[in-house]
Amino acid sequence: MKSDVNDMIVKEILALKVDESMKTFLLDIISWELRNINNSNTMRYTREYLELATIYVDKKKE
Amino acid sequence: MWISEIKLNNFRPFFGEASVKFSEKSSGKFTIIEAKADTGKTTFLSAISWCLYGREVENAHKDYLNPFNIDKKEELEEGDIDSFSVEISLNELGEKNPKYIIKRKAFIKKIDNLAKYDGEQILVMEEWEKDNARSIEADDISKVISSILPEDIHMFFLFEGEKIERHFSFYNKESIKNAIEKISQIKQIEFGEAHLQIVRDGVFSSKKKNQGDDNFEINKKEIEEESKRIEEMKERKEGYEKELLTAQSEIDTIDKELEEFNIPLLTEYSNKRKSLEKENETLKGDLSVIKKEVEENLLENAPYAMGFSALKKLLKLIDTEDEDKGLPPRSVRNIILRELLDKKMCICGRSLNPKEKGDSQQAIKKIEKILKKEDLSDVAEWLIEGRIKLKDLLSDLEKKVINSREKKMETHDEIIKRIKKNETEIEKISEKLKKTDRTKLLSRQDQRKTLAVSVGGQQGSIARIEAGIKLKGAEVSRLRRENDVLAKKKEGYEGKKRLAEFMDEALINLKDIKERILVGVRRKVEELSYAYFMDLHWDKKSYTKFSISDDYSLSLKDKNGNEKIANISSGTKQVLLLSFISALADVSGFKFPIFIDTPLANTDNEQRENIAKNLPNYLKNNQVILLMKDQEYTTQFRDIIKNSVCQEIKFAKKMGRTVLL
Fold first, then answer.
1. Contact B387, B316 (CB under 8 A)
2. Which secondary structure element, helix H or strand E, spans residue A61, and what is its range?
3. Which candidate in B142, B195, B498 is best for mutational testing of the A interface (most A CBs within 10 A)?
4. How many angstroms away from the CA of B201 is the closest CA of chain A?
5. Which of A8, B94, B108, B656 has its CA 20 to 30 A from that of B602?
6. Cβ neighbours of residue B543 under 8 Å, at least 6 residues apart?
7. Count of CB contacts below 8 A, A vs B?
């Protein structure tokens, strides 16, 4: 999905004064939600979110 | 994207197959679909909405029947199966061949003379790459359609000019807020937030049991349950908010209808009818008095009146018999003749002397013969007197009966004329009042009262739920804090703590982004609405600022800084609404064609001309399809925008079916 509002979301995330791993994590979350519109499958997002967060926390530690 | 073709089959007034092909040059130009009322303009919008989402445009059709063509249904035998469908070809900008072809088809079966759905609808979608087509998997079609135009914002691309004011009442901040939120697509951020929160709550769960794990798990379970309840409450709140919006929009609709009823004018009509009815009562009274007088007069003079004609004729005969013969009246004649005999000389100079012989004797004999034969001297006096009496009687009778009756009858006729005139007027007024449907008026007023009560109830429920959500939210926060303490005692605490902190920070950032997006979108809509308004409006110097405040109320300022939003003309209001909707479509970023049904609703001729002059500046980069009533698309309007129109399509009704001309 391509829309000006999506661009706006991306811009807002990139403009945050946080480290890169946080920005990437947020971008991943948004794109996961975009790919899975209205998906409420707990198993899927729990696993994927946890995996993503673990990766980015580790990156942050490095 | 632009739509190159729409095929309709047995869809509402379209009997059999109809194909509307749009010009390749339609991007950046206007396509006009001209049609009389009730020929399928709104159906066209419904067909697009139905094809994409399986739902027709909201409130477009009051019959609530499925869209299968009625004539086609009549041709079917009981138990026969048939289908209706809509197919849309969508092209990338500048491309002649379609990128996507979407077709939705539904089957019906004729049961009890009704076309009832038979089985599931079929939705197929093809994606074309040069000459190769690929069928999109059924599960993915709605996702692809959503990526072209999400359902919850389609109303900003397929909209009805006649209804936009009702949808976006200037005084209904909720509907403005709702529209901004929809195009902000913050739902995806909200989902992300909710999902991340659940994951965050589970960070300290572990399979190994430690001291305090039981409490931790109990708390965690409670957090989950409370969060679920909060979600349910939010859903309930959303439900109430939707109901509230619907009720408020219904109230707006009723207010508009009541405004159209024009109650002071109705009172004036009603009073006029009353006064005319009263006047007729008086006139009818006068009429019966006159009738009675004429009757009495007739009765009194009946014998004379009955003989009036005969007597009049007799008198005439008497008066005219001798005159007709060129003779003096008989009595006069006899007196003259006697006098001639006495004087012994005729008026011609002949001698009437009895002593003379010859001519004289002959003439005397002749006169005596006349006198002998016609001597009426003994009755002459009586006759003359009688004739005078007869004359008087007849003249009296004429005055008393005939003339007076005629005069009275003249008045009588005049009164009848007035009564009839009043009755026609009363009938006209009654017709007008009938058209306003007093019963409907009263029932709509009652409905409004009920709705106003229900709005109050819904607002109360929303407030109660909000308070409940706050309380439960506080409890969840307390449990989370408690679990954070318990988590410290768990194995691998440090690693999990870092993970939890990372997620907490992400949650704060998401919330922050959501707020900023909403503010950003609001500002962009504000900016673009004003730009479109300036493109479309004829009086560019009068207004200097359009804004949407933090609480989503609209404002339009004049050059002196005065607030004008509540006092603008219907034409300016329509232009502002068109600008607002177009800004919403624009800000959403979806490049879908814009269909406007009856764009110039609520405007007068002068305003239409003014809009026409500025229309070429409007929505320059989109494929814009204007569905116009014939009285909207006037010769003047056509002349003004002809250079911006790439195609004219006409819908007409033939034998009750919509055909393309």
1. no
2. helix A42-61
3. B195
4. 11
5. B656
6. B533, B537, B556, B557, B558, B559, B564
7. 98
pTM: 0.59
Supply the DSSP symbol for B656: T
Q: What share of chain A is helix, strand, coil (3-state, %, to 5)?
A: 75, 0, 25
Q: Which residues contact B12 (CB under 8 A, 6 or more apart)?
A: B40, B43, B46, B47, B61, B67, B69
- Bigger pLDDT: B369 vs A12: A12
Please choose, from the candidates A1, A41, A36, A6, the residue with its C-alpha nearest in 3D space to the C-alpha of residue B139: A36
Q: Give the per-residue pLDDT at A22.
A: 92
**Domain residues of chain B, as ranges?**
211-326+388-482
CB B145 within 8 A of CB B122: no
Q: Which of B150, B189, B586 sits opposite A30 (nearest CB)?
A: B189
| Angle ∠(B76,B80,B86) on CA atoms, nearest 5 | 80
CA gap B519, B177 in Å, rounded? 11
Which residues in chain A (5-44) have CB-CB distances under 8 A to chain B? 5-9, 12-13, 16, 18, 22, 25-26, 29-30, 32-34, 37-39, 42
Beta strand extents in B199-353 (DSSP E only): none
- Residue B161: what are its φ and ψ, rounded to 5°? -55, -35
Cβ distance of B195 and A33 shorter than 8 Å:
yes
Instruction: Report residue B167 as tokens.
Output: 């949808």
Query: What 8-state DSSP symbol labels residue B399?
Result: I
Neighbours of B518 (CB within 10 A): 16
Write the residue in A4, A13, A42 that is nearest to B587 by C-beta: A4
B147 shares contact with chain A (CB less than 8 Å): yes
Take residue B472 and report the two structure tokens written for it.
Answer: 């439960």
Q: Quote the CA–CA distance of B430 and B320 in Å, as a whole number.
A: 61
Question: What residues of chain A lie within 8 A of the CB of B505, using their CB?
Answer: 18, 22
- The per-residue pLDDT for B123 is 95
Q: Which residue has the tokens 């609001």?
A: B522
User: What integer pLDDT is reported at residue B441 of this predicted model?
Assistant: 77
Q: What is the pLDDT of residue B507?
A: 95
Find the Cα–Cα–Cα–Cα dihedral B601, B603, B608, B611, rounded to 10°: -80
Task: Report, as an integer, the average pLDDT of A25-45.
Answer: 77
| Residue B81: per-residue pLDDT | 95
pLDDT for B302 = 67
Pairwise CA distance, residues B371 & B67, whole Å? 111
Record: contact B503-A53, CB cut-off 8 A:
yes
Question: CA B635, B639, B644, B645 torsion: positive or negative?
Answer: positive
B365 close contact with A: CB closer than 8 A: no
* Nearest Cα to Cα of residue B542 among B567, B521, B525: B567
What is the β-pairing status of strands B543-548 and B554-558?
antiparallel
> Cα dihedral sign for B500, B505, B508, B513?
negative
Dump the DSSP string for B538-560: S-TTTEEEEEE-TT--EEEEETT
Longest dimension (CA), chain A: 35
Distance from B511 to chain A by nearest Cα, in Å?
11
ipTM of this model? 0.91
Low-confidence ranges of chain B (pLDDT < 70): 58-65, 164-172, 206-213, 260-261, 302-306, 308, 317-332, 373-385, 400-401, 435-437, 490-491
Give the amino acid at B285: G
Q: What pLDDT score does A1 carry?
A: 42
